[in-house]
Design goal:
This protein is mainly beta. The protein has a single domain (about 75-225, about 235-445), classed as 3 Solenoid (Pectate Lyase C-like), CATH 2.160.20.10. About 10% of the residues lie in helices and about 45% in strands. It is built from five helices and 28 strands. It has a 24-stranded parallel β-sheet that branches. Strands 6-7 form a two-stranded antiparallel sheet. The chain is globular and about 65 Å long. It is found in: Secreted. GO terms for molecular function: galacturan 1,4-alpha-galacturonidase activity; lyase activity; polygalacturonase activity. It holds the Pfam family Glyco_hydro_28. This is galacturonan 1,4-alpha-galacturonidase.
Length: about 450
């Protein structure tokens, strides 16, 4: 009897510590009613019931700079899994990897700040969760079913910060340093993420892998060097990378970075990207694809709508590796893969000082276009529409405004450019490099000149 009482008493104390009386549940933001608008993937998002069982797990935070709050985070998620709400309303330091792929019917409220320990970048190189694709890794990964992650952009917190500065500086002398992705969904089914700020990721901001029915909305992403006197290169800070995932919507968000704003990696299908404002990026990019010899990459049914792109290398972009393996840079080599890109539409795209408004290449990772012509890409591109584009490109390539180059006549088909109102700073007629595709479907001024893709991004 006494033992049972003590056990119950201890359990009650643990519950009280997770639902602290000093925390006001009514002060928490309500789960946002985010919906895919104006377009969805053709299928409604799964219904997510409210968390009415009253369980609130407030994650404890340590009191010094050398702490690791990961154990408390894990404890809270286990306590409030399957019907509860996890609250992160303080400043947390994550010093060890967190596997949160067991989640089910849980809300996660981040009104505080989640920082990742940057005291030893080589610790994370060894201890982060690894993905074979392009040597990626991640600090933590979320997965499961029916998970809503959200914050409150009306306050000055709701931040997930990767403290990327230490990694950006370290990679200057160690090009092969493995740098973790800030946030990953792996094996997630039916999830929303909204109203959060993400800062200074070591590598990509977000990886959505092996997941279905994901809605991302109202996010603020920023990678910015504020510490180096002469500035340091911020490499590979993709906003979202989608890999082996279906029915994804990313919308109404602002991204300041130095690489792809959104990238559709292999086997990304039925995806909508809409209402994004991207600055400093490499575009909304399909690919890169065909990197791994003998593997089949499928990307199809994408709708990219109402994008504002500023100070970018590219705007609307498709990048495919050549049909032969080629060396590009540390941690990124390849070519010879199989598959196709099909049914992709870029509709309403505003360009401000981007080097290229439109880019299609099947020579990614190789500066020698002659080699790419000799070994055409094995991966085909078809049923592509670029339409309703306006704005002005940068002076870098003036009067060129873009490039649409396929490596052989039978590698691309039904590629259209319609209502393209792009201008160049000189006021001359904008020119586009066009090769091995039907120019009768292109309402742009084509030239036959070609040049290799010199982009140095990671994938």
């Amino acid at each position: 009897m006494r033992a049972a009482f003590i056990s119950s008493f201890v359990a009650a104390l643990e519950f009280i510590s997770l639902t602290s009386a000093t925390s006001n549940h009514t002060g928490l933001p309500k789960r946002p009613d985010v919906q895919p608008r104006p377009f969805n993937t053709g299928q409604s998002m799964p219904y997510s019931p409210s968390r009415e069982d009253g369980r609130y797990c407030y994650v404890k935070a340590g009191g010094n700079s050398t702490r690791d709050d990961s154990p408390e985070v894990l404890k809270a998620f286990k306590k409030c899994n399957d019907g509860g709400t996890v609250v992160m309303d303080k400043t947390y330091l994550i010093g060890s990897p967190l596997d949160l792929t067991f989640l089910k019917h849980v809300d996660v409220v981040i009104t505080g700040e989640v920082d990742f320990d940057d005291s030893d970048v080589y610790y994370w190189a060894e201890n982060s969760f690894k993905f074979a694709f392009q040597n990626q890794s991640t600090f933590w990964k979320f997965g499961g079913e029916d998970v809503n992650i959200y914050g409150d952009l009306s306050n000055d917190k709701s931040v997930i910060d990767g403290r990327g500065q230490a990694y950006w500086e370290a990679v200057v002398t160690n090009k092969t340093l493995v740098r973790p992705v800030l946030f990953s969904m792996d094996g997630m089914k039916g999830s929303t993420m909204s109203n959060l700020r993400m800062r200074n990721t070591p590598a990509w901001f977000n990886l959505i892998a092996n997941s279905t029915d994901i809605l991302i909305s109202d996010m603020e992403l920023q990678a910015k060097d504020t510490q180096s006197e002469n500035g340091v290169k911020i490499a590979n800070s993709d906003g979202w990378d989608i890999y082996r995932s279906d029915r994804i919507v990313i919308q109404n968000s602002v991204v300041l970075n130095t690489d792809d704003c959104v990238s559709f990696k292999p086997n990304s299908t039925n995806i909508v990207v809409q209402g994004l404002d991207c600055t400093g990026s490499h575009g909304i990019s399909v690919g890169s694809l065909g990197q791994y010899k003998g593997e089949t990459d499928i990307v199809e049914n994408l709708y990219i709508y109402n994008i504002t792109m500023t100070n970018a290398s590219d705007g609307a972009r498709i990048k495919v590796w050549p049909g032969i393996e080629t060396e590009f840079q540390e941690l990124l080599n390849g070519g010879g893969g199989l598959g196709h890109v099909r049914n992709v539409t870029y509709d309403v795209f505003h360009h401000y000082n981007n080097d290229r408004a439109i880019t299609i290449t099947q020579c990614y990772g190789q500066s020698n276009q002659t080699l790419c012509n000799e070994f055409p890409a094995n991966l085909t591109i078809k049923d592509i529409t670029m339409k309703n584009m306006d704005g002005v490109t940068s002076a870098k390539l003036d009067p060129k405004a873009g490039s649409m180059v396929c490596s052989a006549e039978d590698r691309c088909s039904n590629i259209r450019a319609e209502n393209i109102s792009i201008t160049v700073p000189s006021g001359k007629t904008p020119l586009y490099e066009c090769k091995n595709l039907g120019v009768s479907l292109l309402q742009i001024n084509c030239t036959a000149e070609t040049e290799g893709d010199q982009d140095t991004s990671q994938g």
